[in-house]
Design a protein that fits this description.
The complex is a heterodimer of chains A (552) and B (333). Chain A is mostly helical. In chain A, 68% of the residues lie in helices and 2% in strands. Chain A has 21 helices and 5 strands. Classes of the chains: A mainly alpha (552), B alpha/beta (333).
């Protein structure tokens, strides 16, 4: 018998299906979601945990997130559908658990991120951008606007405009957002690169001189840096602490609040091209994590070189210890501000400032994109009113879910900034809001557990997935990775619960933040059982949405 | 089975339908479809078209009693009967057809599209006949009927297998008006509007409207009709898909600014029929990625989407009674 050439597949005329978002777009999406501009590790770490090394903390958080991101790759290829965490958890743990965990700990609490995004836009993008341009162009109105952007009123107005712009962009069509995302991506890269370059070519002495000039122009203080140092010491900062491994480990959960978002693209997994292909998910989830961690570590090292440990502690004292001398008329010395202080070029200032603005704006977009996909999935499953799942016939977007989320976000923006009419909620932004760190972290941690249990709780689904072939002995590799990820994630969540300087424990004896976290889950459970009863009266079981039919 | 007679009358026990479509030859998905009757406790199974698979894998015999085949971009060298059985099982899950052939026979087929299409028809018709037999066996004694029809991807030659069904449990509803229960009828139209893929059963809007009108001429009370129209209503949110460039083969996504362009790939004739006749519900498929529901006056229209390639049966349970829609539940099993 003659040996044939490699046989080809025969095809016929039949329609095909292609998905929307390229793996590269999803990769970018995750990096921008992780937010290389998130400031807390730098402005909180050096004074929150004496002797802690923020750069090393980023590395520890990266190590902890690796098994979680890998576990997500198994979930995302086994269930390449939109709704991500909700789909994973409901299929592994059942509808009541999956729905209430994801609605109560994720969808509701991400409203907080909309408010935080507005705060980032105001204080870390617009404020330094206008302060920097104002100083260099000698334009007082710009300095005044920069200062206003950092005030409570400024933050509220900017936050609502930020949310409204995102709403308009996203309901007008997802492809409009994706176009903007490409601009955001390249601009953020340019901005971040320029900032690191400025840090790398600057030594500590030069930094102090330039900060004196920049800070003096805004605040009128003659020897700004020395004044800030004195203020930090007066506030109790140790300017030359010994390295503390324990403090560094405790700072890792703060870095994890950024890096845990490596898996956020799974919320619109159904829109990602070839989402079921394992290497694509590794690229989207794990490579994006590695790139983000690498960029943050690079930022940390370059700041260490330019600013020095003392400078980083002083900058941090303006935020964490309330050292007003280490602010620029209230504006915190965040890396973008420090980078802008190092240049006299309005163009470089504009590139850095707009880069931070775009990344902060992208974060609010991510809040809408991920949560509305979950709401649509929950609406289709019959666990939220059908209204949430409706797609606008012209714009092809879930407009109802977007509008509902915008309304919710305006309320939280007002609460976050203590501007809710008739309701005085002191310390919302600094204490109560920290519930989000626990709530969101729990969702990722529970999904890691879902991944570990996938081979046992959804056997047929797992065995049909591309990750099923990877084993350690007779144990599925996803069970090992998911198990490790679950333990590491749980440690982070326990830190948010019980470490005084982190998360909910920071609220001291105030039980309200704890009640809010539990209350959101209880509220979601009530929604679940109400919807289940409503459906049951029509002769339908919502459990059918999560049940696997045996083929035999 | 419920001891209560389910006839869908007002005030009586509601009728529960399970609807799915676009399984494209996937064996486990079709088996799940049949099992849905018991699993979801429904009174009727309604299939919305696109039964045929899209790919045919030649398994070419090589020297030494081995086989070679290509699947999903990879060459497979199969050396044992067990591996061959496993490989065929994978093809069944994916909805692909296969044929073992000698290199000479493979050479006869290669590049001869007419001959390949004829082979597709033979294999698809056989699989459909097997499915009908399986449905009769599985549903025997249940009281559940299984309504089957074609979609735009199915050829007329293959659908001829439906003309030979015994009509005990399986009902050929292709382009017919058939009773669902004592109160409701099922109206089926399996055509789609033209696609960039130039599939076998595409029709112009005018032709689709004409077929719908012909069907509706036999319906006494449109408000008690269930529309089983493969093509979803135009620009309804049930028909959102990527715009494709038909000037290349296979059609490629139209990309602007690095991202695909979306549009509504449904039928205006279907929209018009839903608005004019106001049936109980509209059941649609065709656009796999556009799962959802839409409202046309009193009528709820649905597209459950499809993920047949993963062996997942996406479906929809609809409850109706006395010409009224009661409720629905999307499923993914």
């Amino acid at each position: 018998m003659a040996e044939a050439a490699a046989p080809q597949v025969f095809t016929r005329r039949a329609s095909g299906l292609v998905r929307v978002m390229s793996p590269y777009s999803a990769f970018i999406y995750n990096i921008l979601t992780m937010g290389i501009i998130f400031p807390w590790i730098w402005i909180q770490g050096p004074t929150n945990f004496e002797g802690a090394n923020p750069t090393l903390a980023v590395f520890f958080a990266f190590l902890a997130e690796i098994p979680i991101a890998l576990a997500y790759a198994w979930l995302a290829t086994a269930l390449p559908r939109s709704g991500g965490d909700y789909v994973f958890q409901s299929r592994v743990f059942g509808g009541a658990f999956g729905f209430s965990a994801v609605l109560g700990l994720f969808v509701i609490w991400i409203l907080q991120w909309v408010a935080l995004s507005g705060w980032l836009v105001a204080t870390f993008a617009l404020s330094p951008l206008f302060l920097g341009l104002g100083v260099n162009l000698e334009a007082q109105w710009m300095i005044d606007f920069g200062k206003w952007a950092g005030t409570a009123n400024g933050i509220v107005v900017i936050s609502i405009v930020n949310a409204a712009l995102s709403l308009a962009l996203l309901v007008s069509g997802f492809r409009n957002y994706v176009r903007v995302q490409f601009v955001m991506w390249y601009w953020v890269l340019a901005s971040f690169g320029l900032m690191i370059l400025l840090f790398l070519i600057t030594d500590v002495g030069e930094f102090q001189a330039k900060l004196n000039s920049f800070g003096g122009a805004i605040t009128g203080v003659q020897n700004y840096y020395a004044t800030a140092v004195a203020g930090a010491e007066a506030a109790g900062a140790n300017l030359a602490p010994a390295f503390a491994l324990g403090g560094t480990l405790l700072l890792a959960p703060v870095a994890w609040t950024s890096l845990q978002w490596a898996s956020y693209s799974v919320e619109q997994n159904g829109e990602i091209k070839n989402a079921h292909v394992f290497r694509n998910q590794l690229f989207i989830l794990v490579a994006s994590l590695a790139v983000t961690a690498g960029l943050l570590i690079l930022l940390g090292l370059s700041m260490q070189k330019a600013i020095g440990e003392e400078g980083m502690i002083v900058a941090s004292s303006g935020y964490w210890l309330g050292n007003a001398d280490a602010t620029l008329s209230g504006a915190i010395l965040h890396p973008s501000v420090l980078g802008i202080a190092l240049t006299a070029s309005p163009i470089i200032i504009a590139v850095i400032g707009i880069g931070f603005l775009l990344n902060a704006f992208q974060i609010v977009c991510n809040c809408y994109i991920g949560t509305t996909r979950i709401m649509v999935a929950q609406g289709l499953d019959g666990l939220l009113p059908d209204w949430f799942s409706r797609v606008h016939p012209r714009w092809k977007t879930p407009v109802n879910a977007h509008v509902a989320y915008f309304i919710g976000s305006v309320i939280v923006i007002l609460l976050f900034n203590n501007k809710f009419p008739g309701l005085d909620v002191p310390d919302w932004s600094t204490k109560w809001a920290l519930g989000v760190t626990l709530a969101n972290g729990l969702v990722f941690t529970i999904s890691a557990l879902a991944a570990a249990l996938l081979p046992y709780r959804a056997k047929a689904l797992y065995e049909a997935s591309p990750g099923a072939k990877f084993k350690v002995g007779s144990v599925p590799l996803v069970t090992v990775l998911g198990g490790i990820g679950f333990v590491l994630g749980l440690l982070m969540c326990l830190a948010f619960l019980f470490v005084d300087e982190l998360g909910l424990a920071y609220s001291g004896d105030n039980p309200v933040p704890y009640i809010l976290v539990i209350g959101a889950v209880v509220f979601s459970l009530i929604v679940y059982f109400v919807m289940r009863q409503t459906k049951a009266r029509k002769g339908i079981k919502v459990e059918y949405a999560f049940s696997e039919i045996p083929p035999e | 089975m419920s001891p209560i007679r389910k006839d869908g009358r007002s005030g009586g026990e509601p009728t529960r339908l399970f609807y799915a479509c676009d399984i494209h030859g996937s064996e486990p998905t079709f088996r799940k479809f049949l099992n849905a009757a018991k699993f979801y406790d429904v009174d009727a199974l309604v299939f919305g078209g696109d039964l045929m698979g899209k790919l045919l894998i030649p398994i070419v015999r090589s020297a030494g009693g081995t086989w070679r085949a290509r699947l999903q971009g990879q060459d497979h060298h199969i050396s044992t009967e067990e591996q061959l059985a496993e490989f065929k099982k994978t093809l069944q899950t994916l909805g692909f057809y296969w044929k073992e052939m000698d290199p000479e026979e493979y050479g006869d087929y290669e590049g001869n599209q007419e001959k390949i299409d004829a082979l597709f028809d033979v294999l698809a018709k056989q699989r459909l006949a097997d499915w009908v037999a399986l449905a009769e066996e599985r549903l025997d004694g249940t009281g559940v009927k299984c309504y089957l029809c074609g979609g735009n991807d199915d050829t007329q030659e293959v659908l001829a297998a439906l003309d030979e069904v015994p009509e005990e449990r399986v009902v050929n509803c292709e382009e017919r008006v058939v009773p669902l229960d004592d109160q409701h009828v099922l109206v089926t139209v399996g055509y789609s509007t033209p696609t960039p893929w130039d599939t076998p059963r595409e029709r112009s809007e005018e032709q689709i409207a004409e077929v719908i009108e012909e069907q509706m001429a036999g319906v006494h009370d449109p408000s008690r009709a269930v529309f089983n129209f493969h093509c979803p209503p135009l620009a309804s949110g049930l028909d959102t898909c990527m715009k494709l460039d038909a000037s290349v083969w296979p059609p490629a996504p139209v990309v602007e600014h690095g991202q695909p362009v979306y549009y509504g790939g449904g039928s205006g004739a279907v929209t018009g029929a839903l608005e004019r006749y106001q049936p109980v519900v509209g059941l649609h498929g065709h656009i796999h990625e556009s799962r959802g529901s839409a409202t046309f006056g009193r009528t709820r229209a649905f597209n459950p989407g499809s993920e047949y390639g993963e062996g997942v049966l996406r479906g929809l349970i609809v409850v109706i009674r006395g010409g009224e829609y009661i409720g629905h539940q999307f499923t993914s099993g």
